[in-house]
Amino acid sequence: MTDSKKELFEKLENINEEAHNYVYDLWEEANQLEEENGYTDEIEDKKILASDKQASSFKEIFEKELNIEQKRLFWKLVKNADQDPDKDLIEQYLGWFCNSLERMKICTIKEMKTTASNKYFEDLFQMKNFNYLEE
Questions:
Q1: Distant-in-sequence, close-in-space partners of 26: CB < 8 Å, separation ≥ 6
Q2: Which residues contact 39 (CB under 8 A, 6 or more apart)?
Q3: Separation CA 35–CA 38 (nearest Å)
């Protein structure tokens, strides 16, 4: 693993931890209700809400904390994840970036090599001027 990739992965772990802390109370509330009542649709909804808020926070921190080279590296790794020995980690990090609706729409890692483009991610994530991939 290159130093830049290792540094990026460490930053992504820290970003997720910060995003998780932001919505900690929501996760705790859902877990407490589940312990008391078992798994219900209400608990599922709370967990989806917590996950979506965490993803939103993750994106905000991602945009602020990572420099342009790190963002480009991340999206290049996502695009080429199927051939990467760290494929599972990359898929996990992408999952942290996505909210529940985006997770349902996103192509598989196997399809990413042919599907992923600046336009694809711009549309999927509703991000203007997404230009992190060399095309």
A1: 46, 49, 50, 53
A2: none
A3: 6
Closest CA to 19 of 133, 72, 98: 98
53-67 tens-digit pLDDT: 999 999 999 999 999
For CA atoms 108, 126, 60, 116, give the dihedral sign: positive
Distance of CA 24 to the CA centre of its chain: 17
**pLDDT 10s digits, 77-124:** 999 999 999 999 999 999 999 999 999 999 898 999 999 999 999 999
Task: Map residue 106 onto helix, strand or coil.
Answer: coil
Amino acid at 25: D
Measure the CA–CA gap between 71 and 104, rounded to whole angstroms: 23
Instruction: Give CA–CA dist 81/76, Å, rounded.
Output: 8
Which residues have a Cβ under 8 Å from the Cβ of 75 and sit 6 or more positions away?
116, 121, 132, 133
